[in-house]
Amino acid sequence: MRLDLAYDGTDFSGWARQPGRRTVCGVLEDTMSTVLREDVTLTVAGRTDAGVHAAGQVAHVDLPSSVDVEGLPKRLARALPPDVRVFAARVVPAAFDARFSALRRHYEYRVSDAPHGAHPLRRLDTLSWPRPLDLTALNEASALLLGEHDFCAFCRRREGATTIRELQRLEWARDGDVLTAFVSADAFCHSMVRSLVGALLAVGEGRKQPSWPASLLSLTARSSQVTVAPPHGLSLVRVDYPADDELAARAEVTRNVRVKTI
User: Fold this and answer.
1) Domain 104-242 in the same topology as domain 2-90
2) Binding-site annotation: residue ranges
3) Which of 49, 113, 150, 177 is catalytic?
4) 104-242 belongs to which CATH class?
5) What residue numbers does the annotated binding site for substrate cover?
6) Mind listing the pLDDT tens digit for each residue in 143-182?
7) Would you call 244 a catalytic residue per the annotation?
8) What CATH number does the domain located at 2-90 have?
9) Domain extents for the chain?
10) Where does the record place a coiled coil (predicted)?
């Protein structure tokens, strides 16, 4: 079963279960297990960090065919806390894997450079930036980061995980005093989006040249010069998947660890 869901990450310690902490996965698995009277284990498209939001997260779970799939979102709405919701549930082919079948993930990061700060009603999903940001400089620097690279300078390394990613979209748009970064890739390594945003904000306010973030791609370790942007400005907004008959092949490709080529 595929689940489409959203959550306000403010009061969650991220997606993944952690002992003694409130997490999205923990709340969902525990609630679903109670409602369905079945042990539930979720696989998610992308594990978000503490404080990061999701408007278009995807997960999958294996459940008996007797479960009323169509009625599940309504049943869960009565049991889940208000900061997490399952919008839709549907049966998908056995080859569907929320994580490994995904073609790409789409994130957005919101920043306000208004002198007075972010609007009070958007304070939980918009970063207040104290200095004016140059949209042209932001986009110039962003364009130089596109493509497949080793993004280790922008990632918190995890044992056995690759930091090679294909960054397919990174561009900024302004609406009044709010700038939004649109970021898409086949996958992201740990804290990659927030690190990219942090580096680009240094360019946008004039502290660094537009060529600086791309120059860090030659590094072989995480850069101490990159400041990780706060989590609350970041939201996972969509996950793309191939057609049903291509799910298994996509999962096989994704599971192959990429290595840097010369």
Assistant:
1) yes
2) 107
3) 49
4) alpha beta
5) 107
6) 999 999 999 999 987 776 789 999 999 999 999 999 999 9
7) no
8) 3.30.70.580
9) 2-90, 104-242
10) none
